[in-house]
Design brief:
The longest helix is centred in the middle third of the chain and has 35 residues. The chain is built from 30 helices and 15 strands. The chain has 2 domains: 451 residues, Up-down Bundle (Multidrug efflux transporter AcrB transmembrane fold), CATH 1.20.1640.10; 219 residues, no CATH class. It is elongated, with a radius of gyration of 34 Å. Helix content is 59%, strand content 8%. It starts with 21 loop residues before the first helix and ends in a 7-residue tail after the last helix. Helix 1 crosses helix 15, helix 24 runs parallel beside helix 26 and helix 26 runs parallel beside helix 28. The strands form 5 sheets. Strands 2, 5, 8, 9 and 10 form a 5-stranded antiparallel β-sheet that branches. Strands 13-14-12-15 form a 4-stranded antiparallel β-sheet, with helices on both faces. A two-stranded parallel ribbon has the order 1-11.
């Protein structure tokens, strides 16, 4: 693929160098003149800005939490956070399954106990112990280098700290035999961070068979006791004999509430095959740092022989962050390589590769550095931004260098700087206009209510401006400093310019637009009908888990945990009794129990509720304990007095003095007025519950409660799944809003540019066709509209309008020469078509790189954008000239200019108006 001088290939589509108008001199000429006169200071300035902005990249962080997407002032989101303040963060927890063929062996219990001891250090802070540990490390640092074995051996009497040191050393240094003083100092800094985590007591609760307490009723008192007994120093007594194992099993099986919560039974044999460990955090806005710390603990113990599967929303987010980090460092270099190849095939020269490559690299550093300095946290939506900036920015470099080679002979005939001034001023204006339209298209996304999309729109728009500025500065400056050497031409045996595949494509497009324009329009009409039918089938997806490939280990772990313990996230269903202490009423509690029975009923498997938990479990356990542990007494007592008495004689703790026993805090408010029913969402194997499934479940829950709650009761369904459901509304509303706003703004710009309404309508045709085609294909193929694919419409319009303006401006200029419509179309395609094709090739190949991503939406985004770029290219090369041929539009206004047109004609204001 080669662009051959002197074939013209500029956005404005004007062959060779044209006289620079007075208007042009007023606008861009001065800046280009400054760049050409002082190329070295300009380049130094660009380097200095890069040195300032580039370090900001080190500040970039990754975040895929719901807070990155939900509008802060959304009423349901505000209520969701208020509920977390009252009941804790019950929707985002780490849950694991400990399984082993030798589950009931002492060694397995010891390994599990070690895991729990390590976790409990983040729940109950011991400042004296932690300070003593750091002091011991300080003493070792003073001594200098030490072998790893001796270092670890010094803490044999503190097993928990020894395990911590092993984790940190492995994580930081890998396998190491010797620790230097520098290593020890680095290790101490990490230990200090860990100490801060522990001091925050960020773990709210740890639920497991070895840590769980049950309720017993003796001497007319209800008291809690540890299922696994402890010694006088508070250490758990791991069962060692067969009798001790049997006693522990009996205690575990006593309470029906523990089944499916603390352990899992094999449905065929009835044997206990898995133990559950659930870690619940205090309500934190950013769980990633502590979640990584806890994941490190689980990974360590798994490597030490404990069979454990770990998942949950915090763990899923960690994997998302790691995947995003990997994608960022994978996609960007590949896209860079692709565009470099395009540059080489296009220009076949050192400057034709180096200058645009430098331009793209600097633009990338600028935008990522700015994002880092502004504290932007990269989400799954942002993963498309860096490669997109490269793909889009490459087109500006191609246009400028194409113009340089198109004007190469004319530049050589004059003084170099004068020739470059003439050539660069003209093309820089066109690149500026192209960047302006893309900037505006991307900025329309800032109207979205979804925070991540709004941020994406802002930074992508700024990135476009960076790319335009650097292209119009660095390339002219570089060309000034480099010798005006004869380019490598593509002549074959000295017999003329070789015909390329691009020439054949242009010939094909010309014939289609002139000879078969009716057939072209008929085909477009048929395609649009099918696309609209497909669009009607388009569905929205906002569940992040479904962004991963079906056989990804993250999804399979979620499926396994769902199968064992009912799910790893869920709804919080708040049922309000309407009065203080109202939930102590048997009628209310039985209403809760009937609701839970309905949720878990076999007739309602379509609700995908794996298990439920509620305050009523405690009341049923108390009632059973006060009736000699008879299983039939595991129910809500009939008397309100019994419930009140049970709570009065219950011996639980209230460490925070909020009027609730600690174990009740997830389920009741301080006034015992509202009960929180936790319903875990079950993810079936190969059948993940998406947004539609979650919406269906929420609607069915609401319908049931509307019909069955007694008068005076009310309810609210909240929780993490409800936030994902809420995002659907914002995705759809934001998509329609940005789409129409983008089309209107771009249409107005084209109207002002050409001073004709029909020009604006013409410009919207190829873009609208491409957008509708994209959505139609998504609908027919079952591709969901999600956070990432919702960006496609604005990107399509922002990029597609460049080709449209390129064609229309070139057509208008050629038409003004008195040519017929057919002659004008032929000449326009010959001139403008090559630039459109080459920039499209760069964009298409750049977007195809997205297919190596870890995320399904990003992969589909790349495929759909590549397809859309094909559509916009065909729209500019075939559909648009076919419409012109059919309508006979010449884009030359014969009406006298109005007051508005004289003042707001962008063609004249920007210096793009060309004289015939």
């Amino acid at each position: 693929m080669i662009i051959v001088p002197p074939a013209p290939a500029c956005k404005a589509g004007l062959a060779g160098a044209l006289p620079v108008t007075d208007t042009e001199a007023i606008h861009i000429n001065r800046y280009i003149g400054f760049v050409l006169r002082r190329p070295v200071p300009v380049l130094i300035g660009i380097v200095l800005v890069t040195l300032i902005l580039a370090p900001g990249m080190l500040k970039l962080q990754f975040d895929n939490a719901i807070e990155v997407f939900m509008p802060r002032d959304d009423p349901e989101y505000v209520f969701y956070n208020r509920a977390k303040d009252t009941y804790g963060d019950n929707g985002r927890f780490i849950i694991s399954a400990v399984y082993n063929r030798n589950l009931w062996h002492t060694e397995t219990f010891r390994k599990m106990n070690d895991l729990l001891i390590d976790l409990e250090e983040y729940k109950d802070f011991n400042g004296h112990r932690e300070d003593a540990r750091l002091q011991a490390i300080d003493a070792i640092i003073v001594q200098g280098t030490i072998t790893y074995a001796d270092f670890i051996g010094l803490f044999r009497n503190d097993p928990a700290f020894r395990r911590l040191l092993e984790r940190k050393c492995t994580h930081t240094f890998g396998t190491v035999d010797l620790l230097t003083g520098a290593d020890l100092k680095k290790l101490r800094a990490q230990l200090r961070t860990t100490r801060d985590f522990k001091q925050s007591e960020i773990i709210d609760d740890i639920v497991s068979p070895l840590t769980m307490q049950d309720i017993t009723g003796k001497n007319d008192m209800l008291e809690t006791y540890d299922i696994l007994a402890r010694d006088t120093e508070g250490n758990r007594l791991v069962p060692e004999t067969r009798e001790e194992m049997q006693a522990f099993r009996k205690k575990l099986l006593r309470n029906p509430a523990f089944r499916g919560s603390l352990y899992r039974k094999d449905p065929r044999t009835g044997a206990i095959t898995d133990f559950c460990v659930l870690v619940k955090f205090i309500n934190l806005p950013d769980q990633d740092p502590i979640a990584r710390e806890i994941k490190e603990i689980f990974d360590y113990h798994r490597n030490k022989g404990l069979d454990v599967i770990t998942t949950g929303v915090p763990i899923i987010n960690i994997h998302f962050h790691d995947y995003m980090h990997r994608d960022l460092y994978t996609l960007v270099p590949i896209v860079m390589l692709v565009v470099v190849i395009i540059f080489y095939l296009n220009f076949k020269s050192f400057r034709g590769v180096f200058l645009p490559f430098a331009t793209l690299s600097l633009a990338e550093l600028w935008i990522l550095g700015l994002m880092g300095y502004l504290g932007h946290r990269i989400s799954s939506v942002d993963m498309s931004l860096p490669p997109l900036m490269i793909a889009v920015g490459s087109s500006y470099s191609i246009h400028i260098l194409n113009q340089y080679y198109a004007d190469f002979k004319q530049i050589g005939l004059r003084k170099k700087k004068a020739g470059l001034q003439q050539s660069m001023s003209h093309i820089s204006l066109t690149v500026l206009l192209a960047g302006l339209t893309t900037f505006i298209a991307f900025m329309t996304l800032t109207t979205s209510r979804i925070y991540a999309i709004r941020e994406w729109g802002f930074f992508s728009a700024i990135g476009v401006l960076f790319a335009v500025f650097i292209s119009c500065s660095l390339i002219p400056a570089g060309l000034t400093l480099l010798p005006h050497a004869t380019p490598r031409l593509t002549h074959k045996n000295g017999q003329g310019i070789r015909s390329t595949i691009v020439d054949h494509i242009i010939t094909f497009a010309t014939r289609g637009a002139i000879v078969h324009y009716r057939k072209v329009l008929i085909v477009v009409g048929i395609v649009m009908v099918f696309s609209i039918l497909g669009l009607l089938q388009l569905k929205v997806e906002t569940v992040f888990l479904n962004y991963l490939k079906e056989h990804d280990s993250v999804r399979t772990d979620v499926n396994l945990i769902s199968d064992k313990f009912g799910g790893c996230e869920g709804y919080s269903i708040l049922i309000d009794s309407g009065k203080t202490d109202g939930i102590k009423n048997p009628l209310f509690l039985n209403t809760i129990e009937n609701f839970r029975t309905w949720l878990e009923s076999g007739d309602n498997r379509d609700l995908r509720i794996g298990r439920t938990d509620s305050f009523s479990d405690f009341i049923k356990t108390m009632h059973m304990a006060m009736n000699n542990d008879e299983r039939r007494s595991y129910r809500i007592p009939h008397s309100n007095t019994d419930i009140v008495d049970y709570l009065e004689i219950y011996g639980g703790d209230d460490d925070d003095s909020d009027g609730r026993f600690d174990e009740f805090e997830s389920f009741v408010d301080g006034d015992y007025k509202t009960c929180n029913v936790l319903a875990r969402l079950y993810q079936g194997k190969g059948d993940s519950v998406g947004t539609r499934g979650r919406t269906y479940t929420a609607e069915k829950i609401s319908d049931y409660l509307e019909d069955h709650l007694p008068g005076g009761y009310s309810y609210t369904v909240t929780g993490f799944p409800m936030m994902e459901i809420k995002l659907v509304q914002y995705v759809v509303r934001g998509q329609l809003q940005s789409l129409f706003l983008c089309l209107i703004v771009v249409g107005v710009i084209v109207i002002l540019l050409f001073n004709q309404l029909k020009a604006g309508l013409l410009a919207l045709i190829p873009m609208s066709v491409a957008v509708i085609l994209n959505f139609g294909i998504m609908g027919w193929l079952g591709i969901n509209l999600d956070m990432v694919t919702s960006l496609i419409a604005a990107i399509t319009i922002g990029i597609g309008v460049d080709d449209t303006i390129h064609f229309l401006n070139t057509f208008r200029h050629n038409r003004a020469k008195g040519l017929t419509t057919d002659e004008t179309i032929t000449l326009t395609l010959a001139v403008a078509g090559k630039a459109i094709l080459f920039t499209s090739i760069a964009l298409i190949l750049g977007f195809l790189v997205f297919t190596v991503s870890s995320f399904i939406p990003v992969i589909l985004f790349g495929l759909l954008m590549a397809m859309t770029m094909v559509a916009t290219t065909l729209g500019a090369l075939v559909v648009l000239p076919s419409v012109i041929k059919a309508t006979g539009i010449n884009l030359r206004s014969t009406e006298p200019e109005s007051w508005f047109a004289r003042r707001f004609n962008l063609d004249r204001l920007l210096g793009l108006e060309q004289e015939p």
